[in-house]
Amino acid sequence: AILASTAIGMVTGQAVANIALSGSVTIPAMQQRGIAKTRAAAIEVVASLGSQLIPPIMGLGGFLIAVNLGVPYSDVAIAAIVPAFLFIAILFIAAFFMAEAELNLQTQSEKVDTDAIKWIAPSFLVSFSVLLTLLYMRYSPGYAAMWAILLLSGMAFLRPKAYRPGLSGLWDGLKYGVNSACNLALILAGIGIIVQV
């Protein structure tokens, strides 16, 4: 849950949008594993608030720091890497002990498909790296996202057949992506109006 929230926060830089996007998945997932709904929501909110600290797209505070100090935004983002890492590490530690206390030291084991991770993870890591690189090179977010999506889609067809998406899977993914993008656009538009006021 923390990884999902921080990964989305790296791209959006908006805490409220981050909570709306990742919280709908992470909070129920934590509840299914025995975490109380208030604690699950608290973990999600704190992890999403960290999106204001995590480069490359930090919250409004990052831009204000760059403007007020008269330094390039990239310098502010680079300076934020260590504090962001410390924030995430402390959040992991706190969530671990909170979950351990909540679940009364009961360990839960789940089967992990390591072959799926081995074949699917590289395509996500490469496309996400391209996205971050293009953003740091000051290309527009739309341009960076287009190349990341094309690269991710192309690499998906290089996997073995068992891990390759079919047409129905691609269609479902496209529908889910468009739906998520519309929700995010509405949330960001509302936040943008409030920030401008």
Please give a structural write-up.
This protein has 197 residues and is mainly α. It has helices at 2-12, 15-32, 37-49, 60-69, 73-79, 81-102, 114-136, 141-156, 167-196. The chain is globular and about 50 Å long. The two termini are 32 Å apart. The model has no long low-confidence stretch (mean pLDDT 82).
Structure at a glance:
This protein has 197 residues and is an all-alpha fold. It has helices at residues 2-12, 15-32, 37-49, 60-69, 73-79, 81-102, 114-136, 141-156, 167-196.
User: What is the helix fraction of residues, given as a range?
Assistant: over 70%
Counting DSSP H or I runs of 4 or more residues, the number of helices is 9
Number of strands: 0
Q: How would you spell out the order of helices and strands?
A: HHHHHHHHH
Topology:
Blueprint: H1 2-12, H2 15-32, H3 37-49, H4 60-69, H5 73-79, H6 81-102, H7 114-136, H8 141-156, H9 167-196
Helix pairs in contact: 1-2, 1-3, 2-3, 2-9, 3-6, 4-5, 7-8
From the structure above, extract its key features:
197 residues; mainly alpha; 9 helices; 0% strand
